[in-house]
Amino acid sequence: MDKKSYNRSESEEMISLMASTMPPRRGIPGGIHIKEVVNTLIKSYDEIEETIKVDSVYQLNRSLLIEMIEKLRRLIFPGYFVKKYITKSFIEYQTGELVEEIFFDLTKQIAIAMCHRKNGAICHDEALKEAEKLVYVFLSKLPLIRRYLAMDVDAAFDGDPAAYSKDEIISSYPGIYAIMVYRLAHELYLLDIPLIPRIMTEYAHNITGIDIHPGATIGKHFFIDHGTGIVIGETTVIGNHVKVYQGVTLGGLSTRGGQTLRGIKRHPTIEDDVTIYSGASILGGTTVIGRGVVIGSNAFVTKSVPAQTRVSVKNPELQIHENASKNVEHQELDQNEFWDWVI
């Protein structure tokens, strides 16, 4: 056998071996065929209709809304999130193009959301006219949102010694991204637009680990440090110059009431100049944290705290296990007033 025919035979043998070890193309191991899977899924669609969306003209385009967030970010921080260099003479053209795209896409999505809320009770033409007015109002708020976000960037730079520049904060800090999306979504929430604000903030939650409900009220010069695991509930009110670290929860005492609690203030009020360190939980709609308060790490607060005070957890006890044969040593941590665990 010559070399050429030997190589061909070897190749054919390898192909045959691979084919024999591969599962059947139209089946799943265990004898369950694709057709059976499809049939059982279709049956479940008929049985649980509330979790499917077919033959509906009132379905939001989530991907389009996410793209819109990125376009809005380019308007809020022009020049930071583009693929090519932008000159001052070009910025007016780029701004006009982005505003036009956002206006067109957001108008359609708001119209769909409004029809969705009313189960199609209003015609689409009516919804489009109303949506146009709402989008104009929203876009007119962008300069104000920019001013607030500029103050949030200042707060991050002033409050974080690890920040080398404001460019670094704008370009990379997850806290600024989450606050930006919240401030945009909050304006839509105030316009009573359904679904879209929550889709926006949950997208930011998904990529940053920071969960801010669009209904929360947050003042100027807000700083989130690190950010992962922060939860800020719908009826939370936060004043100016507030600093929050990772793992903080501003939540409700209980959600057992379910939908009966809708519209009731369930989350705390945080007044101006408050600092809340990592892992703290502040719960309850009647809980008010007074001006200038410092909440130490891992504190669990369910009652109001008067202004200009400090809250801390009792001294933790450090246990050192040198080895199994020796007694355990107990050492209480030194503490002046309270511990703030900051990374």
Describe this structure in words.
The protein is α/β, with parallel strands linked by helices and 343 residues long. The protein contains nine helices and 18 strands. The chain folds into three domains: 22-50; 53-210, serine acetyltransferase, domain 1 (Orthogonal Bundle); 216-315 and 330-343, Hexapeptide repeat proteins (UDP N-Acetylglucosamine Acyltransferase, domain 1, 3 Solenoid). The chain has a five-stranded parallel β-sheet. Strands 5-8-11-14-16 form a five-stranded parallel β-sheet. A hairpin with an 8-residue loop joins strand 17 (317-320) and strand 18 (329-332). Mean pLDDT is 86; it is low at 328-333.
Distance between the termini: 72 Å
State the total count of DSSP E strands: 18
The CATH topology annotation of the largest domain reads as: serine acetyltransferase, domain 1
Give Rg in angstroms: 28 Å
Order of helices and strands: HEEHHHHHHHHEEEEEEEEEEEEEEEE
Per CATH, the superfamily of the largest domain is: serine acetyltransferase, domain 1
